[in-house]
Amino acid sequence: MELFLRWHQLGIWYPFYRAHAHLTTKRREPWLFGDQVTQLVRDQVTARYQLLPMWYTLMAEWAFMGLPMLRPLWFNAIDDDASYEHVDDHFMVGDGILVRAVTKSLAKTHQVYLPPGKWFNFWNDSSSAKAGGRTIKFSLQATSIPVFVRQGQILFKKMRPRRGSHAMAVDPYTLFVYGAPAMGRVYIDDSQNHDFQKGAFIYDRLEFDGTVLHAQPEAWGPGPMQNVKRQSHARTVLQGGLRIERVVLVGLPAAPQGAQLLWYEDATAEARFPSQVRNLSMTATSMSGDKSSWLLTIKDPAVHLGGPYNWALKLWF
């Protein structure tokens, strides 16, 4: 049962996650192990589905630019000699998520190597960041394996539980912003045809400098999509499912006094006074009781991916 659980907990971080078995082998559906195991596996599958926007983006960047979806630790830390020592049980998903496999039965703790930088516990948004460039002792839980997010990442999620990805197509997005400065990319098409080859896609880059979060179209690197121009009406073509319903900022150094949505006349008018200002609902809590690290949730900023790009979400301290 333990091996079964650890396999699923690791499997959700692979590009291809399925549980195949030969017809004559022992059956291994989660519910055969009881309600507790079924719930634990369900929680992991839910986490997988929430991150489908990330997986779809990684898949597109692999197909169009050759960027590997899974990477060794040293891929983004080429000068860190210690990263080369953990190629058998650590790996990166994209450039921001570190996964450490559980490789010993009945283990209560595991050694986790964190490359240079700061790292947040993926499973606990309220825990403070840990300094990297060192090995830490991590207490293992039956519910999950060690997973960390590099400071400076923006993850795109769809948080509403559905029966499948097609049912999620028009669901809004939740952004998780880890520290500052932070950046994240998201690729979206209708997943039904090849119209993306004609420019019917969205490829956005979101940036947060510690005070302001804004979006802009991202350019493709070298590859088959390098010269494909996105249609100006791509957002119209990809109807629905582009609204951002929540922004969660993890690891702010202070509690903001307020949050506002600023609208400008056009995307090049950031230096001018905004044409519209709207105060946003927010909640801020200290992380692990640490007054130097805050978790902020902003509800319903009423902006969309795919443009127009004349908005900015601004924090006031």
Going by CATH, the architecture of the largest domain would be Sandwich
Give the C-alpha Rg: 21 Å
**Would you tell me the overall average pLDDT?**
93
Main sheet properties = 6 strands, antiparallel
Outline: globular
Total domains, how many? 2
Major sheet strand order: 1-2-3-8-5-6
Helical/strand content category? alpha+beta
CATH topology title of the largest domain: Immunoglobulin-like
**What's the count of strands?**
19
Low-confidence stretches: none
Task: Explain how this protein is built.
It contains 4 helices and 19 strands. It folds into 2 domains: 2-14 and 30-150, Immunoglobulin-like (Sandwich), CATH 2.60.40; 154-316, Immunoglobulin-like (Sandwich). The N and C termini lie far apart (49 Å). The protein is of the alpha+beta class and 317 residues long.
Write the layout of secondary structure elements.
Layout: H1 2-11, H2 35-50, H3 52-65, E1 70-71, E2 90-93, E3 97-100, E4 109-114, E5 118-121, E6 130-131, E7 134-139, E8 147-150, E9 154-157, E10 173-178, E11 182-188, E12 202-208, E13 212-217, H4 234-237, E14 243-252, E15 258-263, E16 276-279, E17 281-287, E18 290-304, E19 311-316
Parallel strand pairs: 10-14
Antiparallel strand pairs: 1-2, 2-3, 3-8, 4-7, 5-6, 5-8, 9-10, 11-12, 12-13, 13-19, 14-18, 15-16, 15-19, 17-18
Overview in brief:
This protein is α+β, with helices and mostly antiparallel strands and 317 residues long. The protein has helices at 2-11, 35-50, 52-65, 234-237, and strands at residues 70-71, 90-93, 97-100, 109-114, 118-121, 130-131, 134-139, 147-150, 154-157, 173-178, 182-188, 202-208, 212-217, 243-252, 258-263, 276-279, 281-287, 290-304, 311-316. A hairpin with a 2-residue loop joins strand 17 and strand 18 (290-304).
